[in-house]
Amino acid sequence: MTRSLDPYGAIDRQRRPEGYVGHLEARGRTPAQTRLRRRFLRFARIRGGQRVLEIGSGTGIVTRDAARLVGPRGQVVGVDPSCVMTRAARRLARRAGFGPSLVHAVGDGARLRFAADRFDRVFAVTVLLHVRDSAAILREMVRLTRPGGIVAVQDQDFGALALDHPDRVLTERIMDGVVSRMYPDPFSGRTIYGRLVRLGLRDVRLAVDVFQDTKLEPYTRAMLSRRAENAVRLGITGRRAAARWLADIERLAATGQFAFTLNYYAARGVKPLRTN
């Protein structure tokens, strides 16, 4: 079994895929991430009674919030290629008290069996950077949205990441060097506005939000640890330098000086009405 450098691009092929369920849920519970996704759902204009589809729904963090917004008269469907994530999403939805109005299914976001024009809103959150054929996913999102409905996308952009660290040269080498070899498109966030325009959507709008962490939350700590581990594995830096880099991060956090930010870009567009 091979291990993908980008675990979120191939969860089920990881050595301990269930561990990523906990990682995502821990991130989702942080106040900054809660604000990010709820602002995005408002931006996507999720309303009561709508039929909503999320592509790349993971553990269902966003679908659960969306289901609260559409209410019992609406329906939210989440699809994800990972069997592990989908099982977790179903379990967590039941635990949160959701019934048949919230559905999770295994599926390839580039090729889904739903009929065209089925959903009022179709969205994807932090998906495009993980997939090699993101253009196919965007086309499928447009196909599944009804005329007059909204397609919305949000992705982070690792070119807009800032970490305060005393060794800026090593920080740039680790952060930029790893992401350029880890993700199919680490700078996807900045591209989504133009891509929705080129797909022929109307009234395309852009929103920029910032995730910030000044406490070194568990998810941020795990992410930075993985960056250091991958930097060693890829030969970007040595093991001692990586350990020293992480120790400086821990020291900053212990003295209340840690600061980490990452830009999230969101775009939405309206599918044109058909004309005869």
Q: Can you characterise this structure?
A:
The protein has 276 residues and is of the alpha/beta class. The protein has a domain at 7-158 and 184-213 and 263-270: Rossmann fold (3-Layer(aba) Sandwich), CATH 3.40.50. The chain is 41% helix and 24% strand. It has nine helices and seven strands. It has a seven-stranded mixed sheet with strand order 3-2-1-4-5-7-6, with helices on both faces. Helix 5 (134-144) links the parallel strand 4 (119-125) and strand 5 (145-163). Helix 8 (218-233) packs antiparallel against helix 9. The longest helix is centred in the C-terminal third of the chain and has 16 residues, at 218-233. The model has no long low-confidence stretch (mean pLDDT 93).
Question: Which properties best describe this structure?
Answer:
276 residues; single chain; globular; alpha/beta; Rossmann fold; seven-stranded mixed sheet
Secondary structure: elements and pairs:
Elements: H1 18-29, H2 31-43, E1 51-55, H3 61-70, E2 75-80, H4 83-95, E3 102-106, E4 119-125, H5 134-144, E5 145-163, H6 168-182, H7 192-198, E6 202-213, H8 218-233, H9 239-254, E7 260-270
Parallel strand pairs: 1-2, 1-4, 2-3, 4-5
Antiparallel strand pairs: 5-7, 6-7
